[in-house]
Amino acid sequence: MIFFLTMLFCSITLVVAFYYCFYVAGKEKKQILLGVTLPKEALESEEVKAIAKEYNKKLNQSMLILLLAGIPVHMAMNGYISIFLIVYTVWGVLLYFIPNEIMKKENRKLYKLKRQNEWIIGETKTIYVDTRASVMARKYPLSSLHFLLAGFICLLPLYASDNVGSFFKQDMAVVIFVTSLFTKVVFFLLYKGFFQRSNKVYSHDTKINQKCIGLRRNILGNCFVILSYLDSISFVIMEWGMEKESYTNGFAERIIIFCLLQMFEMVFLFYSIFLLEKRKKEILSTDKSPIIVDEDEYWKGMYYYNPNDKRIFVQDRVFDSNITFNMAHPVGKTTVYGLAAITIITMVWLSIEVLRMDFVPYGMEIKETTVSFTSGGYNLEVDIEDIKQVTLLENLPDKKLAKTNGGATDDYLLGKFRMEDMGNCYMYVYLDYPLLLQIDTTETTIFFNSKNTKETEQLYKSLSKRIAQ
């Protein structure tokens, strides 16, 4: 259930984010439609309206189909987790790829129509600067120390820990702790980046520019600070007391609270962007001298490519609150392709690891001085002299479990776990085969079974005999 809720949260976030971005692209904004700058009279033409209508129709149809396709994708959670993750990844890629291809096609169609009709509009310069407004933009709404304070909040579980060393022995604790600090750095860089980069100029009227830039500065600046605090709180809830055996109590509730806080963060971010766009539109509606720059030749769909522009980051022309890379700049190109390569390599590696967890059978081999356990990525070897006792169980102990590093599905438990009243333990357990071994060592407890009940019984007899020698 926890895994289902987590993935459902990710899915809702993906669908809403992608649909909103592509939906906005199909709405005229500052005389830009589908990434093409057009005169007002052209926007009213039947040909342009037909292209916009066709785009919206295809977008809605494709997103509906993808949404419906997500139902069997999520139902795959009941099977092998590896198959689900691979199918889910493909589905997530299609959520972006298909609408993006639709937009690119309609963008080229509209740009071709513009060239045929010679609809040239506005200025052709790439950057327009309003120095008085730019000076104002560099004034931060809140102190950067807030991000440092949010980082200190992430350290609270360490201060409350009885043993910091034990805390960092938990793989899950390390991952959560590093992730919590990393997100603070990301929020801080976003906060800085939005105010240090070149600011978009909307009008020949400096007061209009100051209002728009001040609005963005206050709403987005405050948003990143609040998100930083909320994010720290959500991670602290997950980490608090992680090194203690009592951590297993309320583990499911911690996950639910964490997911709810993360979901609230996304809602708050979208609301802040929506509020910014709404108020900015109200300000610009009174503008008598707007600046319109026709730079369509430098935009390839949703990507900017201008070898004459030395900027790495540029403001997205469709979604003002977003920034994109100049793909003609070596740093911009390297960053985009590098991130894409890292993402692909990570997903391939993760898929291989999870496939091994699902399909590599558990093995237990009793050697002369050691006992080795093999599986899909969680191999372990213990000295026989460190084994205190071995017990043959008909079922797992009826105690709460918390996974710290491994896999937990309806079919198996594999990897490192925390068991109520027992502490850290290793699991090599097929849940549909209740007969299993409990092997207590000087450092940990190991649970193991085979899909062959007779094999499990034989391993119990052989290990018991070796321990008794």
| Morphology call | elongated
Helix and strand string, N-terminal first? HEEHHHHHHHHHHEEEEHEEEEEEEEEH
Nearest-integer average pLDDT:
81
Radius of gyration (CA) equals 28 Å
Instruction: Report the span from N to C terminus.
Output: 45 Å
Largest β-sheet summary: 6 strands, mixed
Give the number of DSSP strands: 15
What strand line-up does the widest sheet have? Answer: 10-14-15-13-12-11
SS class: alpha+beta
Q: Estimate the helix proportion, in percent.
A: 55-70%
What does this structure look like?
The longest helix is centred in the N-terminal third of the chain and has 37 residues, at 81-117. The chain is an alpha+beta fold. It is elongated, with a radius of gyration of 28 Å. It has a domain at 363-468. Helix content is 56%, strand content 14%.
Brief synopsis:
56% of the residues lie in helices and 14% in strands. The protein has 469 residues and is α+β, with helices and mostly antiparallel strands.
Feature tags:
469 residues, alpha+beta, six-stranded mixed sheet, 13 helices
Outline the fold blueprint.
Elements: H1 2-25, E1 32-33, E2 36-37, H2 40-43, H3 46-75, H4 81-117, H5 131-137, H6 145-154, H7 156-159, H8 164-168, H9 171-196, H10 206-239, H11 251-284, E3 299-300, E4 303-304, E5 313-315, E6 323-325, H12 330-359, E7 363-366, E8 370-374, E9 380-383, E10 387-393, E11 401-408, E12 412-419, E13 423-430, E14 436-441, E15 445-448, H13 453-468
Parallel strand pairs: 13-15
Antiparallel strand pairs: 1-2, 3-4, 5-6, 7-8, 8-9, 10-14, 11-12, 12-13, 14-15
Helix pairs in contact: 1-3, 1-4, 1-11, 3-4, 4-12, 5-10, 6-9, 6-10, 9-10, 10-11
